Amino acid sequence: MPLIDLSHPLTDDTPPFPGDPAVAIKILQSTDQTGREERQSLNCAQITLPIHCATHIDAPFHFYADRATIDQIPLADCAGPAYKIDLCECPVIDEIDLAPHRDAIAGHPHLIINTGWYEQWRQPGFFSEHPVLTAAAAQLIVDCKVRLIGVDFPSVDRPPHPAHLVLLGHDVLIVENLTNLAEIGDNAFTFSAIPLAIAGRDGSPVRAFATIAE
Asked: What is the CATH number of the domain that holds 173?
């Protein structure tokens, strides 16, 4: 079955969320090195990055100290049937925007919202002018028993984080900074975004992808 990569690549110049440290990829060993006749050369590197950078997932612990950390969330919640809604040119996503899709949302454990904002990646305003979800929209998602929501912008909201509080407060996982969503033709598909098992922490980078049935 065809796979569609929905993740931004991690590079030294991947833009972090404003205020977070930059991504750093350090080469530890390289096959280009000379003078290593005593053993075979190899390629090995070290990466340093904020957890909430590029395509990543938020665990409930991100906003709630007594909720599940990323290594405690069920992996079954990170992969499965998904439904995509296209809401391009919709800067504020409210309950009224999701209501026409309520039955379809309720029929899938994963909801993916495509606004086309991923096309603004690396552009001025990407982190400051992105779409947001209202608390009412987040509550509709909770009421539909969605287990994971994915969006193509860097955060589902802005301070004081009304959507984060509603979603994570009901253990709904959040995947942010998806890309290539227009390549998913049908509304229904299989979505996967598996986190690293970072013990006791609030989220993880992910390699997100869509599986399309032929």
From this structure: 3.50.30.50
